[in-house]
Amino acid sequence: MATVHKIGIADLAVAKSPDILTTLGLGSCIGIALYDPVKKVGGLVHILLPDSTQIKNNANKAKFADTGIDLLLSELQKQGIGKTRLVAKIAGGAKMFEMSGGSAIGNVGERNVQAVKAKLKSLGIRIKAEDCGLNYGRTVELHCDTGDYYIKAVGKPVKKI
């Protein structure tokens, strides 16, 4: 019987088959799933902002793309998971609010997507699938038995990537 692990905002967890990792309320935030298809172990981090160096109160490493992905990778490595087989799936990064004048605040979702992609590339982790952008929130589930990443959004069919 699979256990469902719920991950809050600016939080992360690691689990193995048959467990499921889920996080709710991805608006401009991004859910980054890292998965080893051989060992069937996955991790999920719910990041809020792109860059920890731009914020004074940055003690919560899971809150940021640059430090949250490193922290998730470290937790996976504690479980004996190497970087070489990991694949990433990402979802979120929506533009939830229309801001006048092209405000950077209104564009945090796009900046999150760019930061996540840059960080994964720098680590040599391939993004296998993504569901990012647009203007609606998402809930995601990583199924550790298959590596399937389910995206749920109000008024839309469930998407599997």
UniProtKB/TrEMBL annotation:
<dbReference type="Pfam" id="PF03975">
    <property type="entry name" value="CheD"/>
</dbReference>
<dbReference type="InterPro" id="IPR011324">
    <property type="entry name" value="Cytotoxic_necrot_fac-like_cat"/>
</dbReference>
<comment type="function">
    <text>Probably deamidates glutamine residues to glutamate on methyl-accepting chemotaxis receptors (MCPs), playing an important role in chemotaxis.</text>
</comment>
<keyword id="KW-0378">Hydrolase</keyword>
<dbReference type="GO" id="GO:0050568">
    <property type="term" value="F:protein-glutamine glutaminase activity"/>
</dbReference>
<dbReference type="InterPro" id="IPR005659">
    <property type="entry name" value="Chemorcpt_Glu_NH3ase_CheD"/>
</dbReference>
<protein>
    <recommendedName>
        <fullName>Probable chemoreceptor glutamine deamidase CheD</fullName>
        <ecNumber>3.5.1.44</ecNumber>
    </recommendedName>
</protein>
<dbReference type="GO" id="GO:0006935">
    <property type="term" value="P:chemotaxis"/>
</dbReference>
<comment type="similarity">
    <text>Belongs to the CheD family.</text>
</comment>
<keyword id="KW-0145">Chemotaxis</keyword>
<dbReference type="InterPro" id="IPR038592">
    <property type="entry name" value="CheD-like_sf"/>
</dbReference>
